[in-house]
Amino acid sequence: MSRDFRLDRVPVDVLAYELAEEKATALGRMGRALEDALAKLRAFDAAHPRSEVTRQARRILVREAGHALWMLVVQREACGLRNSRMLMRDYNVPGEVQQCMAPLLATSSS
User: Fold this and answer.
1) Which residues of the chain have pLDDT under 50?
2) DSSP label at 100?
3) What's the pTM?
4) What is the pLDDT of residues 47-74, one digit of tens each?
5) What is the DSSP string of 45-91?
6) What per-residue confidence (pLDDT) applies to 70?
7) Can you give the residue ranges of every domain in the chain?
8) Are 41 and 62 a contacting pair, CB within 8 Å?
9) Contact, 72 vs 28, CB < 8 A?
10) Cα maximum dimension of the chain
11) Which positions ≥6 away from 92 have C-beta within 8 Å?
12) Are residues 59 and 90 in contact, defined by beta-carbon separation less than 8 angstroms?
C-alpha cells in the first residue's frame, strides 16, 4: 500500500518539493542541450576541414553552443551552484565556446 507523500505534508512542503523537482528537470534539460550543441560542433569539425566556406557555418555552431552553455550556467547559478570550473571540465567545453557564452541576440533579416 503505497501512499503519496504529499498527503502528509503541509502545502509549503509540497511546493518546495515541486520547485526542487522542476529545478532538477531544467538542469537536466539544459545539460542535454549543451551536450547536443557541443556534439554538433565536434561533428562539424570532424567532417569539414577549415576553409572560408565553412567558417560562417562553424561560427553559428560555436554561438549556439555558447548560448547553450550560458543557459546551463544561469540555471546552475539559480540553483546555488556558483562554481562552473567543473562544468567546463566535465562537458569538455572548448575555450572558444566559453568565450562566446551569452544569450543569442535577435537579428533582423532586413
Assistant:
1) 1-2, 110
2) T
3) 0.80
4) 987 776 678 899 999 999 999 999 999 9
5) HHHS-S-HHHHHHHHHHHHHHHHHHHHHHHHHHHTT----HHHHHHT
6) 96
7) 10-99
8) yes
9) no
10) 66
11) 38
12) no
